[in-house]
Specification:
This protein is mainly α. Helix content is about 60%, strand content about 10%. Helix 1 runs antiparallel to helix 2. The protein starts with a helix and ends with a helix.
Length: about 70
């Protein structure tokens, strides 16, 4: 009944529902950003280099898959 009342009396039902779920699980997610990533040239810790490394990785996958289809 308590949970039903929380949701029913909420102004933001979706947020309240997720808060109840997180509370009942007894855990919270902590944010930990990537600080280092392995690339073809070794590791990079440069913040601008990390998204660039992801981009290069996925660009090459697409090219390799396309070459295999030919």
């Amino acid at each position: 009944m308590h949970i039903k009342n929380q949701i029913r009396n909420s102004t933001n039902i979706i947020k309240s529902t997720w808060d109840i779920i997180k509370d009942s699980m007894g855990s919270s997610c902590s944010y930990s950003p990537f600080t280092k990533i392995n690339t073809d040239n070794g590791f990079t810790t440069i913040p601008e280099g990390i998204p660039k490394a992801f981009n290069e990785f996925f660009v090459h996958i697409a090219k390799n898959l396309d070459n295999k289809r030919i």
